Input
Amino acid sequence: IHKMPVTPTVDTLSFFVVYMSAHIEPRSVSAYLSGISNKLEPYFPEVRANRSSYLVKRTLAGCMKLHSKPVKRKLPLSRNHVLTAITSLTPSSTHDDILFVAMLCTGFAGLMRLGELAVPDDRNIRDYRKCSLRSSVIGIDGGYGLDLPYHKGDRFFEGNRIRIVRRGTFKPAPVFERYVASRDNVSRMNPYLWITSKNTVPTRSWFMARLRQLEPNTQFAGQSMRAGGATAMAEDGSPPHLIQ
Output
């Protein structure tokens, strides 16, 4: 279309960076280049060397300075958000209400992402192997633990043991114990830990609808649990290696 050679030379890749950066976020262009190199290497063995050339790197750096936009991050949830959710529970609260608060407490205290607690809305990309199992739950002194089979930061699919303990006035264990009792009444046959009153694993939209009732501000989202928990740990003086 632009009457340029299809060979991925240094100049061609550099022009590609400039063209694409004018239309999409330059940080994405870097990922595009990696994908292009992977696909074209069998036909053009020199493509990786050209992609790593000084000209292409400097072109990409220049485009990031010219066109890149600041990363927009969601606001972190505070302890008050979580405590408000806990105190909203009453003896007559429904199973789904208890489920939401238990997920919120676990995500906040365990520095977990929403994707590690709920499944995507799109059925085509759901992977139930990532869902924590009811059988992985253990009780520990002043808290509880559960297994996270694997997640996007788990390069070797080893999984993680999540431990949730009391910190100051924040006591997530009673809420979680109440949820587990309610969950077992819903179904003892379902293997997954987090299930709704309909005996299904909660979706992202299910969780977000309830989060909006707690905090209508759209600057708060699923990742706000992890950010808020990390902020709370830093305020408590936790070592950086534990927060990471």
